[in-house]
Amino acid sequence: FQVRVFLALVCAAVLALLYVLLCFQACRWPCCRAPGRRGSPTAPPPLERSLCRRCAVVSSSGQMLGSRLGRAVDGQECVLRMNHAPTAGYEEDVGVRSTIRVVSHTSVPLLLRNQPYFFQQSQDTLYIIWGPAKKMNREKVGTTYRALLTVMETYPHLQVYTLTEEKMTYCDDVFQNETGKNRMKSGSFLSTGWFTMILAMELCEQICVFGMVSDSYCREKNHSSVPYHYFEKGRLDECKMYLVHERARRAGHRFITEKTIFSRWAKRRNITFTHPSWAGG
Q: Under the cellular component aspect of Gene Ontology, which terms does the record hold (predicted)?
């Protein structure tokens, strides 16, 4: 009898521990912190949110034009968008919902130009901002960080978080592990898509990526010519942009290299690509 009681207590303790660990994973996202209020003596809290079963990662590519995938995008449990890509005027192709918007420090000024759209109409959206330490530094109050503080004072209910320096370093380390190259020494810039995919893999059980081409697409003879961004028609060509950056010796976004890596990740994770559809690995 005593042995049974002991085993029951051990099982209960193990289950309790698993529950705590799972709850922590589901409820706390230590990669991101809210900007601290001016004069606040306490450290800002980490992001807390539940995990998502099915996620849409929506590319800003011109591939989305004419796709009529809006309903499929909105049908996912969580929708992740990037930078200042709008939905207004493109609802049929890209949907209307925005659960999370991952934003580069360089795109923050573009959000600020259209505050009613991004910060008033999209109050349910969670914003995750990434950028270098000199722009995002909390102690020295970098320029981007200062702008975020001002925005949060204007819109106190806005959900804005920044990637921690530890998470930024982690994303650099992932790039080096996957390519064998140091990001800074190789003159490479990571794209917002890179950070979005890493965050999506931590947040989502299933990921459906909309509008992202494969690593070989732009080298195919008969590939379609589409705008770099679906909301900037007649400007930059997507493939020309990708190839220029891939070949740049310095300050190049390695879009094609990143897609090669995404393809490998898709072999290990539940990630699919649609419009165009292509197989991971």
A: Golgi membrane
Cα–Cα distance measured from residue 259 to residue 61, given in angstroms and rounded to the nearest whole number: 14
Query: pLDDT digit string (tens) for 159-199?
Result: 999 999 999 999 999 999 999 999 999 999 999 999 999 99
Crossing angle of the two packed helices 192-203 and 165-179, in degrees rounded to 10 = 100
Instruction: Domains for the chain: give ranges and CATH numbers.
Output: 32-38+52-274 (3.90.1480.20)
130 exposure class (CB count in 10 Å sphere: 0-12, 13-18, 19+): buried
By CB atoms closer than 10 A (0-12, 13-18, 19+), residue 256 is buried
Name the CA dihedral angle for 74, 77, 83, 88, rounded to a multiple of 10 degrees: 20
- What is each CA distance from 44 to 34, 36, 146, in whole angstroms? 6, 5, 15
Q: What is the CA radius of gyration of the chain?
A: 21
